Amino acid sequence: MFEVREKPEMVERALLVRLYFDPREADESEALLEELEELVRTLGIGVVDKLLAKSRSMHKKFLCGTGKAAEIVELARAHECDCIVFDNQLAPSQQREWEAASDLCVIDREEVILDIFAKRAATREARLQVELARMQYALPRMARMWGHLDREGGGGSGGAAAARGMGEKQIEVDRRMARVRIDRAKRELEDVRKQRATQRQNRERLDTPHAAIVGYTNAGKSTLLNRLSGSDVLSKDMLFATLDTTTRRIDLPDGQPLLLTDTVGFVRNLPHRLVEAFKATLEEAVLADFLIHVLDASAPEIERFHDTTLEVLEELGAGDKKVITVLNKIDRVEDPEELARIDQLYPDALRASALTGKGIDALLTECSHLLADRVRRVRYRIPQSRADLVALLHEDAKILSTDYEGNDVLVHAVVPAAVAGKLEDFREHSEAT
Hints:
The structure is a single chain. By secondary structure, the protein is an alpha/beta fold. The protein has 3 domains: 13-120, Rossmann fold (3-Layer(aba) Sandwich); 208-370, Rossmann fold; 375-429, Alpha-Beta Plaits (2-Layer Sandwich). The protein is built from 16 helices and 14 strands. The protein has helices at residues 26-42, 66-78, 92-102, 109-120, 124-138, 142-145, 147-152, 159-206, 221-229, 272-277, 279-287, 302-316, 336-345, 360-370, 387-396, 417-422, and strands spanning 13-20, 46-54, 83-86, 105-108, 210-215, 246-251, 257-262, 290-296, 322-328, 350-351, 375-383, 398-405, 408-416, 427-429. The strands form 3 sheets. Strands 6-7-5-8-9-10 form a 6-stranded mixed β-sheet, sandwiched between helices. Strands 2-1-3-4 form a 4-stranded parallel β-sheet, with helices on both faces. Strands 12-13-11-14 form a 4-stranded antiparallel β-sheet. Strand 1 (13-20), helix 1 and strand 2 (46-54) form a beta-alpha-beta unit. It is elongated, with a radius of gyration of 27 Å. The chain starts with 12 loop residues before the first strand and ends with a strand. Residues 145-164 have low confidence and may be disordered.
């Protein structure tokens, strides 16, 4: 039975390589190589060296020229590496050429991210999404997995079938199995989307506003959700600590309920197939009433992280959403000049620290202001015989107080506009004082 190829467990020593072709890309390429190191270490693989190499032009065989390729292979051998990891995206044929030339495991940035996602996926939905992305990635690379069988097939006179060799036959079988699994994963993901649509309809019936927490990976999104909701979502100082969306209900200062969803973090050069495969997760950002964009204020590349997140949101169709920008980890920024620079870059952003609680009250107040037109504070005088209306308020509104006077129930509540219309005849005051 076909299985997605796994890296050998003994892979412990890796050489990281980033090739660039324009001198103007040098600084960004260096930053991407640093990020690749963090991604690789997240997999538990040791990094023995990093190489930022410039090539005059792109080449079909190795991406760079044969001379540069020989230098890279020699460096990997000198360090006794088990693996070469490229930050560049490698075509299947290029990956095969590198492995043949080095006799080492060779992977690219996309495969690293896929492996991290595979290790972190916890729910059925996330596992399906990872399986789909990995199968789509592996399908065109199957030839290298069975090359040894193809080489074993001798010359002989067994007709066309024999001439094709054992390897080619096995590839055909595995490709069919892979396509079957891809189709099955797509169908199961569609079922998950339908379930999520049902859950969303329940939210819409209640008219409960919804915000999605988005941002670059490791910006502190899960920590912020925990601080706002009092929950215990996994939050660690690592890339892609959580892959599954988590939704929590909180109460804003004006009494209005708000659903908060933590989403998977973004990275630069996020593989397109992952964006596609994770639509069921990331669509929370598309369907939210507004976004809370979390930035790591202490990150040297805060501008690039900000732009990357906006680019991915644009690709998802969420580029026109209202956004509250939060400068998280502000407690780590001690240089006054750096603080002034960040404030100038993001003048409307809120300073906060999800770890210490700084700025959290201001964030909640801003959420209330953004949704001010969604609710009303109203006092009702409802006959006790209309217990159904009192029950409606308890189910769909935020009850601030309840008193009794004669045969009436006096209710002070924060009420969604849709619910307020149903009780207009029982309103005692248009707005509470």
